[in-house]
Amino acid sequence: MRELNDVDPQALPEGWLSSDEPVVLRGLVRDWPVVQAARRAGEGQGGEVAAYLRRFDVGATVGAWYGPPEIEGRFGYNADLTGFNFAREMTRFAAVLDALAAHRDDPRPPAIYVGSTTIDTCLPGFRAENDLPIGHLQPLASLWLGNRACVAAHQDLPDNLACVAAGRRRFTLLPPDQVGNLYIGPLENTLAGLPTSLVDFREPDLQRFPKFAQAQARAMVVDLGPGDAIFIPSMWWHHVEALEPFNLLVNYWWRQSPEHMDSPMAALLLAMMTVRDLPPAQRDAWRHLFDHYVFEADADTAAHLPPAARQILASPLDSDAVRGLRARLLRRLNR
Q: Taking a C-beta distance cutoff of 8 angstroms, is the pair 156, 232 a contact?
């Protein structure tokens, strides 16, 4: 994995925010006050960092996950994949900080985790002291807080800049083409809206998941400490393991596509409903159409048509065209 050291956040390297490959940025947010608090307190202790976070706490309610000690921090499914091995609870942010402090020294603590919580709602004012100059990307800034929690491998549609503010985290990244080797769980019954791998990357069961050995050969693994950051491109698989009793991460999400574009997941689900179970010859015919109009589309695809006749073949689609196309699809689906 490419690494850049002591990057100046005011002079970010040109092009890395749109890279197709992961990039580690050592020390990117080392000057943040919350990172300084973490370094003074020692990795993973959390006392001074928690006190710093409480300065901005306005009593917001957050979604927290709690798992028994037996799951050893790995949030996932139950044995038959009909449910999960943890409980979700809406609680005050301060209560999560209290729970982390109460179990900090436990040899086998319960798993405690708050993920993808909008910072400006939860801790207003925090970003005035801890932020990056990437406002031109219009990112959504979120926080991730917990003890030794382990998030199963998953993909995100937006690009992702993840900044370790306290504790240490181990990132294992895999390119999108490894989906067939990751043994993805149910698409409609997910932990947090995203399909995840069933493989425990910490101790993979290669008898149950033999193709995972091929994924391991392609894996990129890196440990990050307070002040370090990693850029994860859209749709790269990433497994994230927190390694200390107290861990805080701040991340920024943004898309390199207009807001009016729908999630490609909608297209995948529709294709599963309409294309996947066709006879092989018909499915192959549709593969050619998808290649022509989607995956290999270029300036020549509709060049034979006058501009006024191209309609949805025009590229890129503008917001009016997308609204019209969405209405057309809804009419067909509601027949």
A: yes
What tokens does 162 get? 């993840």
Dump pLDDT digits (tens) for 1-17.
899 998 899 888 778 88
Q: In what order do the strands lie in the sheet with 150-154?
A: 150-154, 237-242, 169-174, 220-224
Tokens 């490894």 sit at which residue? 178
Place of tokens 């929690």: 149
**Dist CA 127 CA 117 (whole Å):** 13
Number of helices (H), then strands (E), belonging to the chain: the values are: 10, 13
Residue 213 · residue 206 · CB < 8 Å: yes
Which residues, including other chains, have CB under 8 Å from residue 332's CB and lie 6 or more apart? none
Could you read off the pLDDT of 59-111 as tens digits, one per residue?
Answer: 999 999 999 999 999 999 999 999 999 999 999 999 999 999 999 999 999 99
The residue among 146, 126, 150 whose CA lies nearest residue 37 is: 126
Domain limits, the chain? 2-254, 264-333
Task: Tell me whether residue 64 is exposed, middle or buried, using C-beta atoms within 10 angstroms of its C-beta: 0 to 12, 13 to 18, 19 or more.
Answer: buried
The predicted model scores a pTM of 0.92
Element (H or E) spanning 322, and its range?
helix 319-333
The separation between CA 248 and the C-alpha centre of its own chain, rounded to angstroms, equals 15
Element (H, E) at 159: strand 159-166
Q: How many Å apart are CA 303 and CA 330, to the nearest integer?
A: 29
Strand-strand pairing, 247-254 and 140-146: antiparallel
- State pLDDT tens for residues 19-36: 999 999 999 999 999 999
**Cα–Cα dist 76/151, whole Å:** 8
In angstroms, rounded to a whole number, what is the distance separating the alpha carbons of residues 281 and 276?
Answer: 12
Of 153, 166, 172, 192, give the one whose Cα is nearest residue 63.
192
AA identity, residue 322: V
Which CATH fold would you assign to the domain 2-254? Jelly Rolls (2.60.120)
